[in-house]
Specification:
mainly beta, 8 strands, signal, elongated, 1 helix, 182 residues, Conjugal transfer protein TraO, eight-stranded antiparallel β-barrel
Length: 182
């Protein structure tokens, strides 16, 4: 009988310990955001999910879709990336309506050049090719609280694509909203 109860008792103790530890860490929060804005030679849209383990930092996973045209012949290209990162709060206003965060992380994704075609309408051939890309980024976010649940977000990232045919450095600057889930 005691041998049968060892596993359930052990499981209950582990779950109780995890629950107690979570309560000791304080209130955890999550938020989602969407922004749109400028990328080099075009526009981009970004969606984010943030996990806030405390008031001073958050882990972010974001998705960027960029639509642009490059060069004198306006060759279209699209960039789609996923960016996991970590942000730290570096400033909060005394009135608690404004916060500034700095962070960075890695990225991976895909770049599509000329809709996947190597030939331009003029018959010229493009050396660049569509491919998977990877790299890192540094970012800044300014958050203006509109209510307890909503914030206005100003976002700026500088990406470094290690193997991009479009260019290694790639900026994004956008304006959007953030909603706190809990």
């Amino acid at each position: 009988m005691i041998k049968r109860l060892r596993c359930p008792i052990f499981l209950i103790l582990v779950l109780a310990g995890v629950s107690l530890q979570a309560q000791m860490r304080g209130n955890l929060a999550s938020s989602v955001g969407v922004s749109g804005g400028y990328v080099e030679d075009g526009f981009g849209v970004m969606g984010t999910f943030n996990f806030h383990p405390n008031r001073f930092k958050y882990f972010q996973i974001s998705v960027l879709a960029a639509f642009a045209e490059d060069g004198p012949t306006d060759i279209p290209y699209n960039i789609f990336t996923i960016q996991p990162g970590l942000y730290y709060r570096v400033y909060i206003s005394p009135r608690r309506g404004f916060s500034l965060f700095l962070g960075g992380g890695g990225l991976f994704g895909y770049e599509v050049i000329n809709n996947g075609s190597n030939e331009l309408p003029t018959g010229a051939l493009i050396d660049a090719r569509s491919q998977f890309i990877y790299g890192g980024y540094l970012g800044a976010e300014a958050e203006f609280a509109l209510s307890n649940d909503f914030s206005l977000l100003v976002k700026a990232n500088e990406y470094y694509h290690v193997n991009s045919d479009v260019g290694n450095f790639y900026p994004y600057a956008g304006l959007g909203f953030r909603y706190f889930l809990f």
